[in-house]
Amino acid sequence: xxxxxxxxxxxxxxxxxxxxxxxxxxxxxxxxxxxxxxxxxxxxxxxxxxxxxxxxxxxxxxxxxxxxxxxxxxxxxxxxxxxxxxxxxxxxxxxxxxxxxxxxxxxxxxxxxxxxxxxxxxxxxxxxxxxxxxxxxxxxxxxxxxxxxxxxxxxxxxxxxxxxxxxxxxxxxxxxxxxxxxxxxxxxxxxxxxxxxxxxxxxxxxxxxxxxxxxxxxxxxxxxxxxxxxxxxxxxxxxxxxxxxxxxxxxxxxxxxxxxxxxxxxxxxxxxxxxxxxxxxxxxxxxxxxxxxxxxxxxxxxxxxxxxxxxxxxxxxxxxxxxxxxxxxxxxxxxxxxxxxxxxxxxxxxxxxxxxxxxxxxxxxxxxxxxxxxxxxxxxxxxxxxxxxxxxxxxxxxxxxxxxxxxxxxxxxxxxxxxxxxxxxxxxxxxxxxxxxxxxxxxxxxxxxxxxxxxxxxxxxxxxxxxxxxxxxxxxxxxxxxxxxxxxxxxxxxxxxxxxxxxxxxx
Length: 507
Hints:
Blueprint: E1 3-8, E2 18-22, E3 25-32, E4 35-40, E5 54-56, E6 59-61, E7 68-70, E8 76-78, E9 87-88, E10 90-93, E11 96-100, E12 117-121, H1 125-136, E13 142-147, H2 157-163, H3 179-184, E14 187-191, E15 194-198, E16 203-206, E17 211-213, E18 216-219, E19 223-225, E20 238-239, H4 244-253, E21 259-263, H5 267-278, E22 282-286, H6 294-297, H7 299-311, E23 315-317, E24 322-326, E25 333-336, E26 341-343, E27 346-349, E28 353-355, E29 371-372, E30 378-380, E31 383-385, E32 390-394, E33 397-399, H8 404-418, E34 430-435, E35 438-444, E36 451-457, E37 460-469, E38 472-479, H9 482-491, H10 498-506
Parallel strand pairs: 12-13, 12-18, 13-14, 18-31, 20-27, 21-22, 21-27, 22-23, 29-32
Antiparallel strand pairs: 1-11, 2-3, 3-4, 4-9, 5-6, 6-7, 7-8, 10-11, 15-16, 16-17, 19-28, 24-25, 25-26, 30-31, 32-33, 34-35, 35-38, 36-37, 37-38
Helix pairs in contact: 1-8, 2-5, 9-10
């Protein structure tokens, strides 16, 4: 063991980490219960500097995407990270902190000592997180992942943010796990589609005629983009965006100086507008709302995001709808209900998604075709559903929320309960959206509020806005206020008064 003097004990704050470096090795020092700990300095999800996050209630919260780790031992508590933190040997010599630059050995793969078969249908954010959590929690049995796509799960969030901007080739979309993980963890991947499920006999039927029996199964098929149902929508330059293959098709069709019409003003729609405009295209958005995202972010932030888009050259049409995509073999224009023709070389529809549950007709489904689950993500005995397809109880009300991080949280809950646990969702929903180089964070799931107050101006980040109802913080939105949002992500798990919230983040 080779120890290096990196800091003094007094240098390490009590409410956050301290980053130190040994050569190229970045390490974060934490105070945990009066003791010092040393962990890897960058989040295993996307490399965020963990020292810029918050230390709250014994957890270290990542500043970027709010992954949470137990300060005592670095154990993963909340995604989107899928790994615990590497821990480094540390000695305290008087007031001096000495750390080894070689991490302690990672936990080994659970032995194959369990005869059960667990099946995961879907290999996206939720499915991959579930497989990782099962091994993390000690399941040594057979794990089979079934997915229609040939590749292992990958980070879909980059498609609308970076791939369509030309900043990242589609083939470089980062996988959620590399191939060695599946091999080392004995996780089987099967490219196929489910045609039917018999929950009574615990049997899945595949499109190639195979049947697969399971002891426990989790459904994580995600959402499917709503198709554009207009004359001309079948032209080859009319797209939706959900998969890496679809992103590749868009990038083959899109080139600078072309004209793109985006139908819809969903988060995916406006992220695509930002990306394609950065790629050099002329972009027009046919929006359903005068102010985008007002239902989630409030009018002030929605107006600021629209103004940012317009400043960058995106055009908005909000008072008319598309009636037809015009073209002879290729897209030429979009016709509006007032007779106006908007010239176009490609059309992208961002009009929402629906749960991909067509194969689960034998199961009871909600009006929106989602699957109702209990607070442990259970559909019925031996069967769980997670992510975009799950309607689950949140604050006593059934909700379906299409958030990347939430899907992964569902996955970890389901994994624990598949192994006999009794876990349920106790966190605060969080998502982020990216527009012209600015990241907007959102905490909560507020449909109503009676007060909103900002620190800073939404038009000129950094800013943070707090939304209250009856004096209680119900949601927060921010840009370039990572540490404040990391702190709130943990504190909002319990009722938090608006005054207390402001005192917390103004310090």
